[in-house]
User: Fold this.
Amino acid sequence: MSRQISCPNCGGDHTLANPGISMVVCTYCNTTVYWGDDQVLQTGEKSILPESDARLYLHATGKLGGEGYEVVGHVRYDHGRGNWDEWYLQLNNGSVAWISEDERKLTMETAAQADEPIPQLSQLAVGTVIPIGQIPYSVRELARAKCVGSEGQLPFPIQPNEEYAFADLASADGQNFATLEYDEAEKPTVFLGHPLDHQTLTVDEEKPPATAAPKAGKHIKCGNCNGPLEVVGGRDVQTQVCEYCGAQLNLTSAEATVMGVNPEDFDPQFTFEIGQGGTFERRPYEVCGRMFYQDAEGYLTREYLLYNADAGYLWLAEENNHFTLSRPTQEAPSRDPFPLAAKSVVKAGSDRFRKYESGVVHLVYVDGALPWIAKVNDTFRYTDLVAPPKIFGMETDGQEVEYFRGHYMSPSDVWEAFGLEDKAPRAHGVHPAQPFVRGNISRLLIWIGLLFGILNLGLLLWSLGQTGDPIFQETYTSDVYLKESMSKPFKVGEGKVLTLKLWAALNNSWMAADLVMVNANDEVVMEMDGEFSYYHGYSGGESWSEGSYSTTRHFLAPAAGTYHMLFKANSGSGSRKGPPRGEKLKITISQGAVLSRYFAMAFLLTIAFPFFAMLRQYLFEKRRWAPVMEDDDDDDDSSFDWD
Amino acid sequence: MKWIGLAVGLSLISGSTAGAYLASTRGMGLGGPTEEKISIRQGSNRGRRHGGGFYFLYFSGRRRHYGGGLHGGK
Assistant:
């Protein structure tokens, strides 16, 4: 039988959802009602929660993994850079569950007993890896949680402004979460969980209008210039920038406080306006915030926060008219990329990235309305990993690390997404994540060029072996070739190419010959000649040689028939006027050779396009990496000290 | 435009390969038979000391050119 209590403050009746309830926020007077150590009902502070953009709400019903549930309790915490919600669910099977909701991302965690020793808070830093239940978790966030308020029924008493330290951890693939809560207990409380998608946790009825955040927001006055402002409704806004004076207003507390003011007379020259709509990833988005960052080397980046009610936020970064579109991810890189050199390989998920650069940036200017606490001069370290067109970003302020996955967008892509009709600007230089774009035609020509290049190379090698068939071969002594002599007859066939080869065992001498082919009518039909020399010696402790024992010439064959060869040759040493040396001269004529020179020319021509296409890609990659390869030596980011 | 580029590229690639084959097997660019048919008997003498046969003076009388031209490979 369900237990009932009456609020000690106003007398309102409440039926407890389960026997484990230790605190109730009175629905009628908002007073926190809890059982004290003496088991007597006590009244605490009033707990009034501002509306938020959370998907769940008190008394929402639906199914969690197929099991029916009702939300019976709700606590909101502030972690210094924003809020998150904890929902206490009573399941139909009698069990309970806790669901965390942060910017509509859901996580289910349950208390667990860790077998491994859990370090104390002072031993932790962002990035510290702790094995729990054989899964290595890395610390993603270290902060203090402050209770903003609560509603409904909870299994423990908690008052507004109560605080505790915590560490949020996640496995490398982002599929396992852990939270370590450091309260007054000696040992931290360990919670283990995993992300939930909105299909696993369904809600029977979306948030009713009375509970939903109003689309038209409430009106406030800027704490800096007193200008009237309307807080953006319909989503969770923690920073709103005054449109009159540029003050960054913190909306997480009951009263908007000024955190910082944009520099005067500074024009960040944003390309897109607050409220400008576009279509990204097939959903309508709206620019809801703009940020202007500058790094230590003076590089400037403009970033636009895009919002869609169903899909959440996207980050559109602009640099030299190049764009990247990113969203947060729980996936972590395979190793800490900050101390690595440029081009080092880092895996994230199934992708293999290369480190591009690390650095420190600070926020110079911000406007719009953001779901986190942001103010000018906010500073953080970043590392960009690229696998064009993909980009993986890592940002940390020392207390929290966040990962972003994105991809490159060309100016024309972005212009099309925003539905802009004017011509997109030309991007300058090569962006780290910019893919080298090659058209289908170009790719086809490269492959065909390579294919024909291989074919021509094969034909070139084949032609080198096609020396033809000998149709004449004789060796003559000097007493024959020194005077004009006629050879025996030989037959020329149908082959087009004649090859004349002259050979002599030269020894520091030269030989030159004139030859003519003579037909049956004693008419000269072809004139040929050849000269060659071979010298060798020993000087300076080394032997040397130059020239050749032979020479080869090609000619177009005369008509088929029987021919003689009339020839005369001379030889000598050192000077042509020297005495003949008397080496034997071997004359060979072959027919049917295949020339190689044209295949060599065709080879060069066919691989020209692939060669220049690859050269273009090589130069593109060189331009991509040039900025970080040049200053890699003096850019020691690992020495950055957060303390 | 890109289709024109593809057509030009394909024509160049396939044309150069086919042209190279024809030029290589047909000896394109090689020196060939002389246009003017010259008898080797012109300028040559009947020998008096060689049994009455010819001894040739073709190169001695008409041609004398050593060297020059393309040497070596194909």
Remarks:
- The CA atoms of residues 2 and 482 of chain A lie 131 Å apart.
- Confidence is low (pLDDT under 50) at residues 210-216, 633-643 of chain A.
- The first strand of chain A starts at residue 4 and ends at 6.
- Chain A has four domains: 4-203, 262-417, 444-464+595-643, 469-593.
